[in-house]
Predict the structure.
Amino acid sequence: MAEKKPVFLVIGAGAGIGGHAAMRFAAGGYHSVLARRSDEDSLGRLIGAIEHGGGSATGSLLNAAEDGAIEELVARVETDIGPIESMLYNLGAQIGNRALHDTPHKTFELGWRLGCYGVFRLAHAAFPAMVERAKSGRLCSMLVTSATSAMRGNAGQHSHAAAMGGRRMLCQTLNAEFGPKGIHTAHIVVDGGVNSPDTLGKLLGDKFEAYKASKGEDGVINPADLAETYWHLAQQPRNCWTHEVDARPWNDNAWWNDNPNPQIDSSAAKPGFAGPKAD
């Protein structure tokens, strides 16, 4: 019997980041397992595209907020498909801008379940077997897509910011415990709009194309290009792991820059100008 391919498991495999990451890993020799909440037709199209490109893939519908669903999927993949060596948790938890009084308890909790608790459950279910694989020198990793809200909370983002902030800290604790055991956890802050019809496209509706046009050439993240960053992170040698990275278009400002159009005065940069003197 031929040896089974290593598996790249994607939780949140839409037509944007998740789907393109699955394509990239399949092209690199993994069997991609794509899981998403709904739209079986779109899932089938993604699998067909991967197979058309010479890769292999399997799909599954998954309600990640449901107790036991993630755990059952991990067990089924390990038994029926192959050894999970890399994973991507790509589920968002964005519910839109809601004032505190307009954020019901259940809505806030759902954001936490999808944004933070799901990462914990995936690691809890998959890491024990991955640790054993890492002992033999296999590159094992969990990639976690995140957002600007993991770094800065804004008004109306109570649920999302709490979930993403928790996601970031959880990645750090997983690295602290499992990095020495050979599992690389990478937290990817996507600090900009992504050209994805399943997420930003649905959020903006008929304004999506106008939004992309307003950002200019290369002003919106191409998920196929971002997938190369995910691939690189998963292939990093153990002596130089990257645990957190942020990505944004070249003409966007970083999340910490409060001035959207900083004007730099270069008049002081004259020959012989040495800057202020130290006290």
